[in-house]
Amino acid sequence: MIEINQLNKKYERTEVLNDIDLSVSEGAIYGLLGSNGAGKTTLLKIISGLLKQNNGSVKIDNSDVFEQPNIKEELQFIPDTPFFFPHYTIQQMGDFYQSCYSNWNQDRFYQLEKIFKIDRKEKIHTLSKGMQRQVSFWLALSAMPSYLILDEPFDGLDAVIRKKIKQLLIADVAERNMTIMISSHNLKEVEDICDQIGIIHQGELIIEKSLDDLKSDVHKIQVAFSKEIDSSFLDEFTCLHKEKRGSIHLYIIKGQTFEIDQYINKYQPIVYDRLPLTLEEVFVYEMEGVGYAIENILV
User: Fold this and answer.
1) Most buried among 95, 160, 180, 273, by the most CB within 10 A?
2) What pLDDT score does 295 carry?
3) Residue 224 near residue 269, CB atoms below 8 Å
4) What pLDDT is attached to residue 283?
5) Which residues contact 242 (CB under 8 A, 6 or more apart)?
């Protein structure tokens, strides 16, 4: 389990993370979302033990992470720009990983070669960006980590490889109870595999919920009435977005389904539909609610 309490991080005078409280259950796949510059990468590097926070605590399995080799041996971090030693082959990088991680599984290393269909004798620097990303997963998964931290992991991968990697990740969670934390701007990919979601904005965690709870708490509705409605309509609820198209009113609101239904039906609408929301729409409207506005994206 990953537990973060009252975490703060500054770069010189710039506060990057402010009083972050966050928890990731063992065996969960946690999606970390946020605006550009929100502090996501900094947070992932702190969790991975690459950076040290100024205040607060970061614990994995009740132990500190920074400068703790026994914890780092159970953890793999794939950054947005993978790093490899210059002119090393995949096999040589595998040998290096084997010397660092006691859980290294050589059989799995050979099995993943067949899955990724890349010759382990290839020099990594000669490979394309997408193939280098595959090598990152190849090495990380061969180390059999208990915790896998991913920063923009699907960048540069084609649809077939993305699906293959997601299957590998889900299998490791199911079979070994591996815990994954993933930051990505590709919200469709996050929605496909994550069961917990955290949203960071300007260094603060503004939402942390299960994916199901997050989507069930935010509703996209369209309504129409036979006569003009009062301007106070839906004031009882938190309205993240509203728009009028002809006679149709579109709203993104937060609240319980039965309370919304009961309230709207009092106005006897001639049209009342609740439309499905994607994670991307939930993210956009939550961000709009904290001032990160994006205009006219309802479709």
Assistant:
1) 180
2) 42
3) yes
4) 84
5) 234, 249, 250, 251, 252
Q: Tokens standing for 118?
A: 């890349």
CA distance readout (Å), 245 to 116, 285, 298: 49, 18, 11
Comparing CA positions, the residue from 209, 227, 195, 184 lying closest to residue 44 is 184
Backbone angles phi, psi at 132, to 5 degrees: -65, -35
- Model pTM? 0.85
Round to whole Å and give the CA distance between 31 and 199: 8
- Report phi then psi at 144, rounded to 5: 55, 55
Which regions of the chain are under pLDDT 70? Answer: 289-299
In order of their start, the domains of the chain are: 2-202 (3.40.50.300), 213-290 (3.30.70)
Which among 248, 229, 233, 224 has a CA at the least distance from the CA of 298? Answer: 248
**DSSP symbol at 89:** B
Helix H segments across the chain?
A: 40-47, 69-72, 90-100, 106-116, 129-142, 159-176, 187-193, 211-217, 257-265, 279-289
Token reading at 190: 């996050």
- Closest C-alpha to 180, from 212, 139, 141: 141
